[in-house]
What does this fold into?
Amino acid sequence: MRLTTLTRTDRLPLLVTRATLTAAGIDLDVALRAARSGHWREVLPGAWLRRDVEVTRDHRQQAALQVLGPRSLLTGPDACRELDLRDVPADDRVFVLVPHAVQRDLGPTVRLVRSTARPTPCEMRGRRWVDPTRAVYDASFGRTLQDVRALVTAAVSDAWTSAEDLRALLDKGPRRGSAELRRAVGDVEAGARSAPEAEAADVLGAAVRAGLLPRFLLNPDVFLDGSSCSARTSG
It folds into this structure.
């Protein structure tokens, strides 16, 4: 018995894409008409919910990965939050790492991060994510220095990444837009463990250059009677 289009669409998952429809033998016009009539809700270009429900961030994440293909990975602020990193900058967009050749535009709610290198994916909640270093790296572009310092120093202090690993990505990536991240990584390399420490070092450094203060060290290792301890401040 030949199934009707309505029956076939009812058997589809809640989130459908052009590829889903093609695999099920359903014409794209079915989705376009359903979206225009208000029965379906467009999530992203080429992806729909088969119910007239509110589109959530989770829906956009899932849709982006399905539309962009198996080599796409979630990155940036969402990946940082998924890993429970601290001081992640607020951003309404979903960041997706894709191969450099991908030129597709999914609208203002999705930012594509193009790269020739693909990190080893991490699987969480049925989705593909980048590693912590790449997540911090991608989340740092287009931010204020204060925001980048907060994210980077927290991630390094909590051992999610290191200045060396971030520096390695910076050395391979574009210089444009990376000034704040380079500065924050330099702060960590100089001993800063929090954004306030890095900001204080700026002020003290200006006083040193003016000859008002002697040179100083941030969080140095102090050696007493042959043993060592780290002079750390809570950030």
